[in-house]
Design goal:
Blueprint (H helix, E strand, L loop, with lengths): L10 H6 L2 H18 L3 E2 L3 H9 L1 H5 L9 H7 L1 H27 L3 E4 L3 E4 L11 H20 L3 H8 L4
Antiparallel strand pairs: 1-3, 2-3
Length: 163
């Protein structure tokens, strides 16, 4: 499903799912994942970005990466439902964000369909810095956590979505 031209998008959608903003969140996730394991499988940008963006899912993230991925999903079955449905709805926006991150060279393609860190973006101060820091913190947590959660197939199986 292609996205509408930028000028025809609803302002709320354009603001919340701005490709540059999503690219920054993905860069933080890929960086954290790579520090824990190896370059991140491209397919994991979809659940990772959804977990950061969805307020209900993000607020239910555990406090530590030691909490197991399967246990977290098992303890609150609604998370699986929300994650799967939101992820499907966000696929076009996440793809656009990933293209922005790749074109900006904030992340780079690595062998085996993986993503790695490239040139980190330079960020200035902004009036919404506190909220942005919370988003970046969530993206970093999700990257570390997914690096410990198993293979990309295991992660998708637990969500109930075929990669």
């Amino acid at each position: 499903m292609p996205l509408e031209q930028w000028v025809h998008r609803q302002p709320d959608h354009a603001n919340c799912f701005n490709p540059g903003y999503l690219a920054l969140l993905m860069q933080a996730t890929v960086k954290a994942y790579e520090k824990q394991a190896q370059p991140m499988p491209f397919s994991l940008v979809f659940p990772a970005t959804t977990m950061v963006l969805h307020p209900g899912i993000r607020s239910s993230l555990p406090k530590t990466v030691a909490t197991g991925w399967p246990k977290w999903l098992r303890d609150d079955p609604q998370i699986r439902v929300d994650l799967a449905s939101s992820m499907r709805a966000l696929v076009p926006s996440i793809k656009e964000g990933a293209l922005t991150a790749l074109r900006s060279r904030w992340i780079a393609a690595a062998p085996g369909g993986r993503l790695t860190i490239s040139t980190p973006p330079t960020l200035g101060k902004s009036p919404i810095a506190a909220e942005f820091e919370q988003d970046l913190s969530a993206a970093t947590f999700v990257g570390k956590w997914l690096a410990r959660a198993g293979t990309e197939q295991d992660i998708y199986i637990k969500i109930g979505v075929r990669p």
